Each structure stands twice: as C-alpha cells, then as structure tokens.
Automatic annotation (TrEMBL), chain A:
Entry-linked NCBIfam families: HTH_metalloreg (NF033788)
Name assigned to this protein: ArsR family transcriptional regulator
Record field: compositional bias (Polar residues): 110-122
Domain of life, per lineage: Bacteria
SMART domains noted in UniProt: HTH_ARSR
Family matches, as InterPro entries: ArsR-like_HTH (IPR011991), HTH_ArsR_DNA-bd_dom (IPR001845), WH-like_DNA-bd_sf (IPR036388), WH_DNA-bd_sf (IPR036390)
Pfam families in the cross-refs: HTH_20 (PF12840)
Originating organism: Nocardioides oleivorans
Automatic annotation (TrEMBL), chain B:
Name by which UniProt lists this protein: Polyketide cyclase
Family membership: Belongs to the AHA1 family.
Origin species: Nocardioides oleivorans
Pfam families (UniProt xref): AHSA1
Domain Activator of Hsp90 ATPase homologue 1/2-like C-terminal positions: 35-164
C-alpha cells in the first residue's frame, strides 16, 4: 500500500489540489462548483480530481445526478497527522538549537551591557 | 541540482515548515534562526554543541564518532532505558554555509538518506536553514515521515488499508 501513500503525498503537493481539498473540508461540491475560482479549463480540474480520487482522498457519489465530490476526511487526516508529527519533532529539535545559539551568542559577547556600535541610546 | 520548490523571499519561518517533494522521494524543511550562518554552522560542526540539541529530551544521546568536515564521518547512539538507536553517516562535503551528509539508522543499514543543509544569510542577523532529505525510494521517504508516529509504519498502512477498503474504489 506504500504506493497509495506516495500518491497521497504527490496529490497534496500541488497548490491547486491542496486548495480543492481545503474547500472540500467544509462541504461537498460538484465539479462545476469546484472549478469556478480557478482560471483553468474544466478538463484541467477533472484531471486534478482524478489525481485526488486515485490517491483515495476524494470519492464521487454514484447515486446523485450531480455526482458531488466528497472528501475522505479520515485518509486526509492520517496523512496530515503524519506530516505534522514529523514537523513538530523537527521544531522541537530546532527550539533546542535556538537555546544553544543564544548561549553561544552570550559567550561571543561576554559583556552584559549591549555592544552599542550605533552611538547614543535613544 | 535538486528540484527546488523555493519559498518566496518574503516568507518567514519562525517555526519549522515542511514539504514532501513532488518529484523525488525527499522532504524539505525550512526554519529561520536568530543567529549568523557561521554560528549556525558551529552548532552543527562542534560535537559538544551538536550533542546539546540533537536528541529528543526523552533520549540520551552519546556521540561516539564526530568529524564534521569534508570526507569526515560520524556515529551517535540515542538511548531510552534499555533501547538503543544508533545512527551513522559520512560528510561528503562541509563548506562555509553548506553541509552534505549521509544518514543511516543502523537498524536498516541499507537505507541511506542524503541530506543537504544550507544556511542562507537573511541579512539582519538571521539565518534560514533549509534541509533537503533525499531518500532512496518513495517508500523509504514515507517510512521516514511516519517514523515519528506512536504506531509503527505498518500499523499505519494497515489502518490506511482499512480506510481505503471502506471506500468505493
């Protein structure tokens, strides 16, 4: 199933598709609705939808005449959770790096008074 | 060169931003620091400084080998109670504002990631770090991204399978 996951990441790597997914988190939309804000052909929008469908991110109702597009929120949430968790771990590491850099700067400028090179204080 | 999905100059990254690459099995991370490129470089090349920030606080990191210079190599071990995780790699290139290193978790010695760290001077005492981690397959990239989860990657896939099975595919 790893291809599936790569497809989800690839699907979300495109800004137009990310925007479509963001709008679908609020409500289902028909293809016409979805296409409206974008300056691209309906065909191009259908192509984007196909990518999202193949990734399992959206489904289209087979019953209703207008076949609204529906976001598979669970799949979307899992992906975003994975990425966000990874991001958060990186951020925790960088916060610790912030602290190390702050200590280094104190050692580089041992004078407690700020190093004024700009003349008089205001 | 790498496929860069370069952010706008005006964008600020006070917190880490992450983007899985669209074209190759890689992950980008951007983060701004209140420091000069030289200081950021030192925090990466100096073993004592590096040890202070690399490991999660829940782990103790012990640096076994550290030569952060062109053609150097490294190895460090993180421990949590009885568990040990060892990481190793080489530094093909270390310059003034760039580090190129390989990264391997010894539990999967054949899976090698290639990491390029670039420090960009933002000109106001701040520096932007860009980390580009290139894995050898999309599967490996996704495992790396999922490695932070409490559930292992396979449980994650199993859960995804369940979800997909419920859908109308």
């Amino acid at each position: 199933m790893t291809d599936q996951l790569s497809r989800v990441f690839a699907a979300l790597a495109d800004p137009t598709r990310r925007d479509m997914v963001a709008r679908l988190t609020e409500a289902d939309h028909t293809v016409g609705d979805l296409a409206e804000p974008y300056d691209v052909s309906l065909q191009a929008v259908s192509k984007h939808l196909k990518v999202l469908e193949d990734a399992g991110l959206v489904t289209r109702s087979r019953q209703a005449q207008r076949r609204p597009v529906h976001l598979e929120a669970e799949v979307f949430d899992l992906m975003t959770k994975w990425i966000e968790r990874y991001r958060r771990q990186a951020e925790e590491r960088f916060s610790r790096l912030d602290a190390v850099l702050a200590r280094m700067q104190d050692e580089d400028n041992p004078t407690p008074n700020d190093t004024t090179q700009e003349g008089t204080a205001s | 060169m790498t496929t860069t999905q370069t952010p706008e100059k005006t964008t600020r990254y006070p917190e880490a931003a992450i983007l899985p690459d669209e074209h190759v099995p890689a992950v980008h991370i951007w983060r701004d620091f209140e420091a000069t490129p030289a200081q950021l470089m030192r925090a990466h090349t100096d073993a004592d400084l590096f040890a202070q920030w690399i490991g999660p606080s829940s782990l103790t990191t012990r640096i076994e080998e550290w030569a952060c210079r062109t053609n150097g190599a490294y190895r460090y071990v993180s421990t949590r109670g009885e568990e040990e995780y060892a990481f190793r790699g080489t530094f093909p290139f270390v310059g003034d504002d760039k580090i190129v290193q390989t990264f391997t978790w010894e539990g999967m010695p054949e899976a090698v990631a290639l990491e390029t760290l670039t420090f960009e001077d933002l000109g106001d005492g701040r520096t932007r770090l860009h980390a580009f981690s290139l894995c050898d397959s999309f599967e490996g990239r996704d495992q790396m991204l999922a490695s932070g989860m409490e559930t292992g990657v396979h449980e994650g896939y199993a859960k995804l399978d369940d979800m997909l099975a419920k859908g109308t595919f």
